Amino acid sequence: MISPKISYFLTPLIFVLAFQAVLAQESPSPSGANESNSRISATLDSLEVINKSEQRIRNSIQELSEVESPSDSQRKQLESLRERLNQLQRNFTEIASGISIAEVEEAEDKEFNWSEELQTLLEPLLNELKRATSQPRQIDRYRTLISEIQEEIAKTKSGLESVERLIAAASDKALLAELKEEQSRWNGILQQNETQLSIFEQKLQQRLDKRKSLFQTVGSLPDLFFRGRAQNLIIAILAVVVFWMILGWIRNFLGNKGPYHPDQRSFQARLFYVFYLFFRGIGSIIIFLLALFLLGDWVLLILGVLVLLGVLWTSKQLLPQFWTQATLILNMGAVREGERVEYKGLPWLVKTVNFYSHFTNPVLDSGTIRVPIKDLEDLRSRTFDEHEPWFPTKNGDWIILDDGVYGKVTWQSLEQVRITELGGAVKTYSVSSFLGNNPKNLSNGFRVRITFGVDYEHQAIVTTTIPTKLVEYLNARLEQEDYTDKYTLKVEFEAAGASSLDLAIIADFKGDLGSKYQVLTRRLQTLCVDACNEYGVTIPFAQLKVHMAENPT
């Protein structure tokens, strides 16, 4: 946006350049009074000439009217003089009053004829097209005439040959004389056609000699353009630029006020912005056409109007879409600023709604995107709770996926998620594939659960003494390994297995131990074995017992 200080200097400069031609025609010169007197004097001279002509025609009409028996030529001459007198009288009235009588007569009520009005409107454009295509049309016309005359010559020669054959065979003198006259007449026709053919061929060759090559024609187009209507077109465009700069200055001036400041994002500011865009578009069209009208360039004006009508006709079906976009910009549509919206399978916070809206996701790398307003038409935003997650994970989280991958999230964006496994290997997923693997996030806390079996010989104490002793032992060892206040532990009897009595060891760890998930799982197994060794608890192994049926006595 051009700053107001610069526009103070540029606006008058461009304005003067844009309307220099128009102002030159309309601005009064320093000697305005002298020019006015000169115009009046010229008008009086013209009226005097017309008056003298009228007097001469009246004298002629009087002389012819006094003839007692006028001839046909005299009557026609009298009628022609009266018509000339009427025309001179009309000219005298129009020059004296400065008002066209034809315009006054046309102002009377009459039936509106679409075809005539359209023809009158398009006449300057059609004349321009005729002038532009006159050369190829003349060439085509001469070629057509040449072709027609050649056909006539062929027919004439055929007829002449037939007459000559009859002359050679005729014996009667009277008939022979008549046939020779017919031969002479056909020779005259042939000579006339051949002369016409020669003339048209010469004219065609002249047109072809004047015709430029394709490269010359293309090369001359800029010259024709700039010699013709380029100046008017440039002035009209500059007028639109000046209009835009003035509107921009007004917007900047009003934008510094409280309710209209763009950063306020208030309803007044939005409404002002919508009206600003509407007025800028409509006003630009009006200024462009008005400049062409003042410059008197009817061809460009008609072309501009036709283009405008074509755009309006094709955009009539887009009016509902324009209305929807206007309500979105006013923050009254289905997507509103400060709400949560689902876009391309991810949640986003709507920061701004405009022709290019801005969505952001606070937990994604480079988590801000621009969205065209047409994409918002099918979306629906909603209010949200501050505790709602924006993504299942964030950078630094330790996760486990359904495919067995266990590692740390080191990058997550709109397109992909990178996971660094233990040992340094990197696994990359697309966002859709990552979410499809149902990531289990360990960074908010996780549970390690193992099953440990003891022999059936401890059946009497497996539900009381052994769980208590095992909890005491595990707590003591985990505290020695600096896990104090980072876990909770409990041991419960789980089930009587086929070969053992199974205990469930359940330990809940805090999220900052996510990187030791596998270590802790193995460590609990190790400590359970150490506890059994410490307390003399037997660990069973799988047994197979075969019961044999006794032999009957």
For the biggest β-sheet, the strand order reads: 4-3-2-1-5
User: What structural class do the secondary elements suggest?
Assistant: alpha+beta
* Contiguous runs where pLDDT drops below 50 for at least 5 residues: 1-29
Number of helices in the DSSP assignment? 16
Helix content: 55-70%
Write up this protein:
With 553 residues, this protein is of the alpha+beta class. Among the domains are: 36-105; 129-211, Methane Monooxygenase Hydroxylase, Chain G, domain 1; 338-382, Roll (SH3 type barrels); 398-441, SH3 type barrels (Roll); 446-535, GMP Synthetase, Chain A, domain 3. Helices cover 58% and strands 13% of the residues. It contains 16 helices and 13 strands. The protein has a 5-stranded antiparallel sheet with strand order 4-3-2-1-5, with no helix packed on it. A hairpin with a 4-residue loop joins β8 (416-421) and β9. The longest helix has 38 residues, at 173-210. The N and C termini lie far apart (113 Å). The model is unreliable at 1-29 (pLDDT under 50).
Please tag this protein with its features:
alpha+beta; 13 strands; 13% strand; 553 residues; Methane Monooxygenase Hydroxylase, Chain G, domain 1; SH3 type barrels; 58% helix
Compact description:
Among the domains are: 70 residues; 83 residues, Methane Monooxygenase Hydroxylase, Chain G, domain 1, CATH 1.20.58; 45 residues, SH3 type barrels (Roll); 44 residues, SH3 type barrels (Roll), CATH 2.30.30; 90 residues, GMP Synthetase, Chain A, domain 3 (2-Layer Sandwich), CATH 3.30.300.
Task: Write the SSE topology.
Elements: H1 4-18, H2 20-26, H3 32-65, H4 72-97, H5 101-106, H6 114-132, H7 134-169, H8 173-210, H9 214-227, H10 230-255, H11 267-295, H12 298-314, H13 319-329, E1 340-343, E2 346-352, E3 356-360, E4 368-372, E5 381-382, E6 398-400, E7 406-412, E8 416-421, E9 426-430, H14 431-436, E10 440-441, E11 446-454, H15 465-480, E12 487-496, E13 501-509, H16 517-535
Antiparallel strand pairs: 1-2, 1-5, 2-3, 3-4, 6-7, 6-10, 7-8, 8-9, 11-13, 12-13
Helix pairs in contact: 1-10, 3-4, 6-12, 7-8, 10-11, 11-12, 15-16
